[in-house]
Amino acid sequence: MLINRTVAPAIAELTSDLYIAPEVQTTPSGARIHIFENNIQPVVRVEFVFKAGKWFQSKPGVASLTAKMLKEGTHYHTAKEIADMADYYGASLEVNHGFDRSTVTLYCLSKFLPFLLPLTFEIILQPSFPENEFALMKQRIIQTLSVDKQKNSYLATEAFTVAIYGQDHPYVSSISEEEITALTVQDLVDFHRAAYAFSNAEIFITGDINKAGLEAISSNLKGIADAENINPTSKTNSPQTGLLLNKTANQMQASIRVGKSTIRPTHSDYPALYLANHILGGYFGSRLMKNIREDKGFTYGIYSSLSHKEHDSLFFIGTDIKGDKIKETLEEVAKEINLLKQEEVSEDEFLTAKKHLNGKFLNDHATLFDKMDKYRSNVLLGLTPDFYSQLLQSIQILTPKDITEVAKKHLQDDTLLKIVTGGSPE
């Protein structure tokens, strides 16, 4: 049988349920444990999530430096000893910090979990913040920052978040060399004591976890003294709108950021806005990509996204372009947004975007860890565990008219901030 290669294969309907329901236990320490057990592979991941992100810091940089220093030594082990022990067991110990939370993650074979948990708790509870390592860490961060400050893309994002939130807001991606230099070990000790508290921690366990492993975690949680919780101050700002131009030494390239604070995922308009964003710039076949990359050749890539933090959401368009194509690019971005508001999406484009989202949702939930990642995000954002299943179902019943209406409502030009960094705007 000959295959007609001019005809694309049919796209299968999405039938998979994206919902998972981990068992949730509350410990005497106050921490909640979310357990998603599956023994297909003898691997387990344990994530300890604390309210220790930028949102809770009292000084610029203290949250990120504290997280980075956790593996640089404890009262009982040096950084090398910690790394050697993880290597010996074929494990991975990671510490990540964000705007709202910081996370300590252990990946290992399930049979080694009881041996590695004491080290993990030691890193969390008893870091020594050695002075020499702290000085080297600050030096590396300052060097990296010096390089980043030469990049239009970094400066554009910095300027965009400052204009949206205000200079001192924790969601601003900005820090200075002077602020890093001013930090002391005592600043880290004080922040660690207050922020890395198990009384408000979330622990996510994924994979081959057995009774012995759970007992090992519970045993390590016993007797942990409660810490003094941080009470963040209220952070408000009146976001700027309109066009802001920032000149830099790099005139060959310009970075553009367009966007605004937008609705939360719990809003009734969110499914329609999610699909509208996907059509506009959410994937390689989007309108912005076809126009500004494929047709005009101004950029290698342009995207739009909906980004969520625990206290705000952003609609965001970003691209790096030829330095002499600023005016034309902004005009084309505005044109595509206006078309989304003025003309209903064709049935063919509408169906393609929805089918692509179906595949994206499946890919985003492909593995055990992927599924737990989505579940964890739902927990931290205050969403229901079945949020993505409900979102996908809501998207399936949308019409092209819904896209037009939501774009008119939430993508008004006079509410958008446009940042241009670098290039030659004249």
Automatic annotation (TrEMBL):
Stored Pfam families: Peptidase_M16, Peptidase_M16_C
Domain Peptidase M16 N-terminal, first and last residues per copy: 37-162
Superkingdom, taxonomy of origin: Bacteria
Domain Peptidase M16 C-terminal: 183-356
GO MF: metal ion binding
Protein name: Insulinase family protein
Species this protein is from: Rufibacter hautae
